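Kindly draft a sequence, keeping tokens residue-aligned:
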Amino acid sequence: TLQKVFDYPHKGDILYGDTLFVKENTEEIKRYTDTITFNWLRHFTINHQSSFTRRTIFDKLQFDPAYRILADRKFWMQSMLAGFTFEHLPLVVARYDYCGYSTTNIEKWEAERQAICNELLPQCLNESLDHAFIYEMHQDLQKAYSLLEHHGPCRKLLHWCIDILCRFRSK
């Protein structure tokens, strides 16, 4: 795998590949987005196990040990704010145990996520980015809906799912 990573032509300061998530007897490949934005990093993250970072970045930034679960996320966000570039490698580069500390402590994970966002950004900007993120998700859902609307069986399934979601929402 390492040979494939270094054979791959790249320009980014931080390279990130896809991850094989392992949970009990199941395995699933997590394919990351090709373009990471700061707003994406506020809600999602790349696994540090799946990343390769130029050594020179560590002269300027370090992982913050105050964050036991999301030190990598804070590092990625600070790297982006400092102008470093991210590049996706379309290959699996790590195997991740999905039964570890960070995936079984969701409340602490969310508390750290919120603390990092509050630490790096003023509250008004966090709120604006939340609205932008919701708008982006809405746009993506609209595109998916219009694609599925033209396929009979998919359309019926989509309408059924929306009906179920609306019933839960109204409770």
Remarks:
- The beta strands are 14-23, 26-30, 51-53, 86-97.
